[in-house]
């Protein structure tokens, strides 16, 4: 990993024009003091993507995404943070000194580069072998693969003997140790599907046996420095731009994925023949939150779909399922029904949760007290859903079983006690931001001078949300250093994407309303008052319960109790008096 000095990062951020950089990707037009264009993160017909050169931020009023020039390139061009800084520095002509790598890092880096090189050579070899082998070509043709697809996705063939690849590598001076480490010897008489990363480097291969009689049907490269099983998704590098717009279709096999791409549904990826892992969902979640599963129509496929549900739910995703009616796989479906019908199929996809619910019901229907059993089984899923979605799912299940919702809620509560201990609920609550607290931050971004007029510790006490407290502290510190606020720099320090999105929206909205500073000031003062009032109300409650607790307990000596009680009462009266001031 490279490490770039902080002052260089700041220089890049300061000198980069967010409007001209985003213009490479989005057609921006001047609109008032800002720029507007069609959002690159969701598909839309009227522009709601706003870029502010002055504030060095962007926000989409359609899908809610917001950030600065770094987050834009990271999310849109899929670059890592160091890559983003490097790219911009290069464009701006800023020299970046780099820390030298340690001996071990150097070794790993060289090894990785060697593996990429070996895989690339192997790719050429497999591709050339395919052209020479009629049986393999015929097999691909039978599976409906066009010549363009074969070329574009670099499909290949591994001959029946390991000899030829061995000779091929030997002629290139590769040692047999390196050859065995990357595990290419396993592929014999197989169709080869290379797996590319987002920079089009070959990470590894998948192989499909040509003869049903030589199992296993599917085989992947062995784990290596550059290939992690359970993390790779076939087709991702080609599917990426479509996934951002249309969501992702998850399929099981290479051919399913290629068939869909070939038919124009380029947002499909395959799990390389392994079961779905949480890591897969995490990777895809960076690009979309709309997931469709499309597994084989047989019982194994349905089981795989059911097993994937908890993995999605734990990652906060409610996926849909595309059911294939009578077809056994996507290929057969497209052949029978034609690709014209498929978009409608996607549109009418139902919730995977409902699909699983129906499977559980049909499994349990003949058992005694089957409704209880269904509720118990479904509670395991429902507990991982939150908010309105959970409420709706509970209602759906209650309707389906013709029972009252309270029975499901009861089962959830019983199971929920353990969850509560883990702190899940608390976490969920703290991520709700109060509108007043958000507004206060927005005011300080727009009018940094006001920061000089407050007592920061007092304001800090008024804020309840820990993340917002952090943002406030960042503002205070920055103002103390620079006597101004660079909001795009503060944004980078905010870990929660939701908070980042909310604040970019608030700042741009306020800026756009065209009120005078004086008008804003009176709104700001009103905000402060409301925060103070809320703070006093909380204090009042706290003190009151402390006083009551003191009256009940007899642990402390009489005198101590009296002193403490007097003190609490004085504080309490003080709070009540301050509160009266507000109501006057
Ligand atoms: Zn958008």
Describe, in plain words, how this protein is organized in 3D.
- This protein has 584 residues and is of the alpha+beta class.
- The chain has five domains: 6-92, Zinc finger, CHC2-typedomain (DNA Primase, Chain A, Alpha-Beta Complex), CATH 3.90.580.10; 103-220, DNA primase DNAg catalytic core, N-terminal domain (Alpha-Beta Complex), CATH 3.90.980.10; 236-355, Dna Topoisomerase Vi A Subunit, Chain: A, domain 2 (3-Layer(aba) Sandwich); 365-430; 437-583, no CATH class.
- The chain is 58% helix and 9% strand.
- It has 27 helices and 14 strands.
- Strands 1-2-3-4-5 form a five-stranded antiparallel sheet.
- Helix 21 (435-446) crosses helix 26 (517-552) and helix 26 runs antiparallel to helix 27 (558-583).
- The radius of gyration is 30 Å and the shape is globular.
- The termini are far apart.
- Mean pLDDT is 87; it is low at 417-431.
- It binds zinc ion.
- Zinc ion binds at residues 39, 41-42, 49, 60, 62-63, 65.
């Amino acid at each position: 990993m490279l490490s770039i000095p902080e002052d260089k990062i700041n220089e890049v951020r300061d000198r980069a024009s967010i409007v001209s950089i985003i213009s490479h990707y989005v057609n921006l037009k001047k609109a008032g003091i800002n720029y507007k264009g069609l959002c690159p993160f969701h598909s839309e017909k009227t522009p709601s993507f706003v870029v502010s050169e002055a504030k060095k931020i962007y926000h989409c009023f359609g899908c809610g995404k917001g950030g600065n020039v770094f987050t834009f390139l990271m999310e849109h061009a899929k670059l890592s943070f160091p890559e983003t800084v490097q790219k911009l520095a290069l464009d701006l002509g800023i020299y970046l000194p780099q820390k030298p790598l340690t001996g071990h890092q150097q070794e790993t880096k060289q090894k990785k580069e060697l593996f990429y090189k070996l895989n690339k050579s192997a790719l050429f070899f497999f591709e050339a072998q395919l052209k020479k082998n009629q049986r393999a070509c015929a097999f691909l043709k039978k599976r409906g693969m066009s010549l363009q697809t074969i070329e574009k996705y670099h499909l290949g063939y591994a001959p029946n003997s390991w000899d030829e690849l061995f000779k091929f590598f030997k002629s290139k001076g590769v040692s047999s140790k390196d050859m065995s480490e990357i595990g290419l010897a396993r592929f014999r008489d197989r169709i080869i599907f290379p797996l590319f990363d987002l920079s089009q480097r070959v990470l590894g291969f998948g192989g499909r046996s040509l003869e049903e009689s030589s199992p296993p049907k599917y085989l992947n490269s062995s784990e290596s420095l550059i290939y992690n099983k359970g993390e790779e998704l076939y087709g991702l590098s080609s599917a990426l731009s479509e996934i951002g717009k249309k969501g992702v279709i998850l399929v099981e096999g290479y051919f399913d994925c290629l068939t869909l791409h070939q038919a124009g549904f380029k947002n499909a990826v395959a799990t390389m023949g392994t079961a779905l892992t949480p890591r897969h969902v995490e990777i895809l979640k960076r690009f979309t939150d709309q997931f469709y599963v499309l597994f084989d129509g047989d019982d194994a496929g349905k089981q795989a779909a059911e097993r994937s549900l908890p993995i999605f739910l734990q990652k906060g995703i409610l996926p849909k399922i595309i059911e294939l009616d009578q077809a056994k796989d996507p290929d057969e479906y497209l052949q029978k029904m034609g690709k014209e019908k498929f978009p409608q199929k996607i549109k009418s996809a139902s919730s995977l949760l409902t699909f699983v619910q129906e499977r559980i019901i049909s499994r349990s229907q003949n058992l005694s007290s089957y409704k209880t059993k269904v509720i118990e089984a479904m509670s395991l899923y429902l507990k991982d859903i939150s908010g309105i979605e959970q409420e709706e799912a509970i209602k759906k299940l209650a309707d389906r079983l013709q029972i009252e919702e309270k029975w499901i809620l009861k089962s959830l509560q019983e199971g929920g006690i353990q969850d509560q201990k883990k702190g899940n609920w608390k976490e969920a609550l703290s991520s709700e931001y109060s509108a007043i607290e958000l507004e206060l931050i927005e005011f300080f971004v727009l009018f940094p001078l006001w920061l000089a007029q407050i007592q920061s510790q007092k304001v800090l006490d008024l804020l309840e949300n820990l993340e917002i407290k952090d943002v406030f502290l960042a503002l205070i510190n920055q103002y103390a250093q620079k006597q101004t606020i660079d909001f795009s720099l503060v944004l980078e320090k905010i870990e929660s994407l939701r908070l980042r999105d909310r604040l970019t929206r608030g700042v741009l909205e306020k800026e756009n309303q065209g009120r005078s500073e004086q008008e804003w000031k009176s709104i700001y003062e009103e905000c402060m008052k409301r925060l103070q009032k809320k703070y006093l109300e909380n204090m009042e409650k706290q003190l009151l319960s402390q006083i009551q607790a003191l009256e009940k307990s007899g642990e402390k000596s009489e005198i101590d109790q009296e002193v403490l009680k007097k003190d609490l009462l004085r504080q309490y009266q003080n709070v009540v008096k301050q509160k009266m001031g507000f109501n006057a």
